Amino acid sequence: MTVMIKKCTFEDLEILQKICIETFYDTFKNLNSPENMKIYLEKAFNVNQLEKEMSNSSSAFYFIYSNEEVAGYLKLNTDDAQTENMGHAALEIERIYIREVWHRQGLGQSIIKKAIEVATEQKKEKIWLGVWDINESAITFYTKMGFVRTGVHSFYMGDEEQLDLIMTKSLNEHIYFN
Hints:
With 178 residues, the protein is α+β, with helices and mostly antiparallel strands. Strands 1-2-3-4-5-7-6 form a seven-stranded mixed β-sheet, with helices on both faces. It has a domain at 3-124: Gcn5-related N-acetyltransferase (GNAT) (Aminopeptidase). The chain has five helices and seven strands. Helix 4 links the parallel strand 4 and strand 5 (126-132). 34% of the residues lie in helices and 34% in strands. The radius of gyration is 16 Å and the shape is globular.
């Protein structure tokens, strides 16, 4: 299996929207009402919203490819683009999704390593993410990747408030100064 990670451009907007909707829906369809899923998908992944996010210089999207096919994506935020005020020394993994057909093939580890690489290049001290408190498999994965629970915040799925655990990974061991 050949794995490649590439930063998304505006030319990728159509496939990004498709992958965003597909992966979010597949991940959470059985845990939310159809009405709330529809509201969220239309709000979060419409073309105008994705263009706005891609235009923000403090955000970046990346595709992960498996054998030249888009297998998932990553969205990173720094500074004011972070969904919580974690300061200049932090990088947020706002979204990390792998398409179902590529689950359990190590792509999640590859994409986390990419986030660490970007954070290290930007001299960040930590990376963090929010994960739904009932998503045990994701919590287990992030724990294995060295993230620890450091807080909680609200996430709204339509009209339903859900709790996300904030999980953080220190990068001090990854930053080297000359």
